Amino acid sequence: MKTTSDLSTQIPEPAFTRFLFADTRMNVVWTLLRIWLGYEWLHAGWGKITNPAGVWVGEKAGVAVSGFLKGALAKTQGDHPDVQGWYASFITNFALPNAELLSYMVAFGEVFVGIALILGLFTGIAAFFGATMNTNFLFAGTVSSNPLLLVTAIAIMLAWRVAGQWGLDRFLLPYLGVPGAPGKLFKHEPRSPQSPIPPTA
Questions:
Q1: What's the pLDDT tens digit per position in 40-54?
Q2: Mean pLDDT over residues 148-155, rounded?
Q3: C-alpha closest to that of 20 among 33, 37, 9
Q4: What are the extents of the domains in the chain?
Q5: What is the pTM for the complete model shown?
Q6: Which residues cross the membrane (predicted)?
Q7: CA 28, CA 134: separation in Å to the nearest integer?
Q8: CB 113 within 8 A of CB 156
């Protein structure tokens, strides 16, 4: 009779993908891609924060986001709209009423993602949040550089084990660990069994 352990198996990772996404010999490639992607995010976010009109951060915060979202709603017409109905509903019921908050989140989010990627700090997580922003921009009907940035972010997410090796992750990940594999900070040394106390006479 087969037990549960006999039925549960792991599919081995192909040598090519292991080399591409987990081999430290690919450090140079992933470091260059990571820094380039980080620069793109930092440049975009910093431009929003320092915008002299203050339409992203400042007295008029939310103006730029509102204009962008209203433009997205205009793309919901026709047989093959650029913006799907469910996303238009999200824009109408959530995004537009919170345009000022989203304005700050986008501007500072882009800066934080950019800095984290450049420094190699929680690289996989930073790439995930960058990809999330790219996906939302695409859902809103804006192509621009978003497909390229999204593909690059997904690749970095797959290569998270080595993408930050030439960065702060080299020191932080062994210390903090990852889900399912705690680092030095969370590892508890097994206590040695105490010697029994000899009975008194």
A1: 999 999 999 999 999
A2: 98
A3: 33
A4: 27-178
A5: 0.86
A6: 111-131, 137-160
A7: 25
A8: no
